[in-house]
Every structure is written in C-alpha cells, then in structure tokens.
Amino acid sequence: MKDKQNRQGKKQDERPVLTTRQGHPVSDNQSLRSVGERGPATLENYQFIEKITHFDRERIPERVVHARGTGAHGWFEAYGKIGSEPAEKYTRAKVLTQTGVRTPVFVRFSTVIGAKDSPETARDPRGFAVKLKTVDGNWDLVGNNLKVFFIRDAIKFPDMIHAFKPDPVTNRQEPWRFYDFVSQTPEALHMVTWVKSPWGIPANYREMEGSGVNTYKLVNDQGVAHLVKFHWQPKQGVRNLTAAQAAEIQAQDVGHATKDLYDAIARGDFPEWEFCVQLMSDGEHPELDFDPLDDTKRWPEDKFPLLPVGRMVLDRNPDNVFAETEQSAFGTGVLVDGVDFSDDKMLQGRTLSYSDTQRYRVGPNYLQLPVNAPQEKARAKTNQRDGQMAYYVDDGGEDKHINYEPSMMGGMKEAPKPANEYHQWVEGHLGRFETTRTADDYKQAGERYRTFEDWERDELVGNIGGDLKQCPEPIQLRMIWHLWHCDEDYGKRVAEIAGVRLEKALDLPPLPGKPAPHEKRSGETFTSGKKDVPARAQQEGAPAK
C-alpha cells in the first residue's frame, strides 16, 4: 500500500509526455482519426496502427487475449425470414436468405484476460466467435457473451488490456489497476456493471448468450442498408454463477466449461442457439440519447426487438484441440456480400487488429489450414504466393504461369459487381473526435443496476466494494462518484462496503475534459422488490443449484 500511496503523489505536470515509438509526442490517446465525429476511420492512422500492431505481437504462441478456450463444429440454418418479413427485404447474403441449407460452422468459446491454463471460472467476458463457411466464403462473427464492451474507440484497446492484465512488476492482476483505468473511462461503467454482477461468470459455455457487440450493416439487392446488431440466444437458457459457487467449482476443476461442452456433445445433447438481429434504419438517429454505433451501449429491446433469423447447432467435437481449436483464427473484417461494415470505431479498429494478429500468431498462410479454409464450393483462388508454411497454391485453374491480374493471357478475372452497390456518403473534417452523446455512460449502467434481481445486485455491490477496499483512496472516491451518478443506491451501497465516506466522494468535480453526468432523472429512484428468482432461472440467469 505504501508503494501505491507514493504513486498517487506524482503531479500531472511532472509526468513524462507519452510518445509513439518514433518519439512523436501523443496529444490525443483517446480517439482514432476519422472523418467527423461519426465518420469512418482513415488508413493514415499511424499512431493507432503502430500501437495496435505492436500490441498484437506482445505474446507468442498463445493469443494475447482469449487464450483460454475450447471449440466445436456444427451447422447454421436460416429461417429465410427476419422476424415476419422475408430476409431478402434487408440483405442479399445467401447464408441468411436461403432455407434448407446447412452452413458448416466452427465456434470457439473463451475467456479474455487469463492465460491458456487459467481457470474457466474467472470473472471475465466470454468470447463467442463463430466461423460460418458459407457458399460465398467465410463469415466470421467475432463477439462476446455480453452485448456491450468497455470502450468505444479501438485506440484505447491496448491500454485497457494492459490495465486488466497482470501488473508487469508483481505479475498479479491488481484491482487498483483495473479501477484506475475504469475511473478515468466512464464509458466502461455499463460493462463493469455487467461483468461484476453474476453475468461476469457464466455457468458454462452452453448456457450463455452471444453477441456480435459491434454495429454492422445489412445490405439488400437494391443497395439499401440497415444498421444491425447480431445476437445468439441459447435454447438451453441462461445460467450464471455467484462468486461463492465459482470458487467451489474452481477448487475442483479449472476447466469445467470445456468439459461440460465436450461431454454434452459426446452424449448427443447438442447445444443450440437462435440467431437474432436488431435492426435500425441507416443514419445518425439524433432522437436517441446514445449513438447506435457506440458499442458500450445496448439498443433497447422494447424499441428494437430481437428478430429471429436462424438457428445454430453444435454437434461435433474437434479431433485435435491444437490443430482445430488453437489454430482457428477469426477476424471481424471477414464478411460476406450482404453484410457490411458500419463506422463503429471499435469495429474498424478490430478489423485491422484481429487478422493482423492471426498472421503473426499462426502465420501468413493461416487461411490454408482446414479449420480456417472456406468450404470447397467457395475455395480460395488468389494471386497471393509463398510465405511461411505455404503448402498449396491458391490458383484458379490450370494456368499456373499467371499470378497477376489483369492479364489477356489467362489467370483469373474479377467477379461481377452487384447490380445495386451500397454507396455511403462520407463528408466531414478529418481529426480526432470523441462522441458527444455520452448521457448513457451513466444512464444505461443505472438502468441495468435497477433491472437486476436482488441477488444479482447483492453480488454486484459486494464484488465492486470488495475490490475497492484494495485500491488507493483517489480511485475509491472517483469510482463511488461514478456509481452514485449511475444510481444513488448503487454508489451508496458500494461506498458502505468499501468503507468510503460517500460525502467525500460526491465532493469531487467531474473528470477534466469530460461532460458532467446529467442531473438525476425524475422517476429513476431506486426501488427494491422481491422477485421469484428460481422461476426466472432460464431467462434471467439465476444461480446454479
């Protein structure tokens, strides 16, 4: 604690200036360069590219994040409808419009922060990565079990993971590092409220939701786009663990979730998920108090309901864990025609980072591995050659002399363009922008707190309060200040558990450079009500028995 107190004393103006690896001073470490506040990111993001590509190469051979995990094979089948409408109204993606076709899939589940041999009872988001091997090539939907994330700009990702990973000096995950980052990043409050509740420890991989997290677009034959969120809803129901239940399991088995999935498939109890989407017209939607491109926010399901699209069943375990599960490689840039990118800044940053990581970790020819290669109907035909571990040539036929395009002598040709391409109008000043629609940094976290069952709230405040006991006072006070602005009862209860004077925390000013939270909204005082937890077990994540 003495070392921690010494660290507190360093004044802001005494700290060294952050630079790039080229020695250039960094004046904005919070925002990508983009075309306007909501516009797409640009390729000349040197600071971000240097930062994220170095981050991608920090570990070998295991994944930097999502190292602990397991996988399974299965299939996906579309209903041919999105809700009650024909799927073709919204997308031309065959995998979502064609009925009676079973698309092969490989799914990898994982934890995020822990190393390869860490326990699967860790309080952590769970990765939910799906590779759909469609007739038009691979589609990777790379997400988590929760529908939101900690940050909304990809340039913050290395810092976030560094804060959550073990201290480089003590080699331990220190609570003060986690809350130090979160206390300066209010957009993380919503995700923290989820992760520190029982939803932060799913009972297993079969009984948890999945989400693409980011905002994508669906595009139809007319070139019309809709914003979309993708979700996997388990037919088995949702079940989460309390901290005590997780500790009891961990004392006996650090790989309980891997065993549960393997055993279920082996005995023929195949897990199934319904694939659903939320849709919104393409645009800025100023009528909302959040930006639909902000991945720290949920789209309210009463306004944007979950619409069923298809189902996924996992029915085959891998024959070899290393060859299939560990060498499986996913990327958010792997889309099929009819699914497109939005300007979600986390999605745009992930699209570079994920595939870059795979080229480094597995090798430049990772897509030649059977677990990653597209199905035979969509076999890769490229002019790319050689590189480490190449074992066949992605050629398009008998003419192996022509490995370039265009050519009048042979080789391959471009595919026909869609009759109506989607063209997004982009206009704005190039710069570094933070979103100005930040009310929900506190609002949605408070709503989530009030929506939890009593037992879930008890777990949440107990977990955060216990963590804050181990943090220096400045971090304690700022976190209490944030939580009170989410919900007065939330902040008060955590302060009591942490042994912090609430009045002292509330005397703090807003964070420098951050807008003050909105004043308390009418009708949002906390009310407690007893509910029948067991009766809602399958829907709301009641604890395991």
UniProtKB/TrEMBL annotation:
Residues 19-413 form the Catalase core domain. Keywords: Heme, Hydrogen peroxide, Iron, Metal-binding, Oxidoreductase, Peroxidase. One of its GO terms (biological process) is response to hydrogen peroxide. InterPro entries: Catalase (IPR018028), Catalase_AS (IPR024708), Catalase_clade1/3 (IPR024711), Catalase_core (IPR011614), Catalase_immune_responsive (IPR010582), Catalase_sf (IPR020835). It is an enzyme of class 1 (oxidoreductase). It comes from the Bacteria. Its EC number is 1.11.1.6. Pfam families: Catalase, Catalase-rel. This is Catalase.
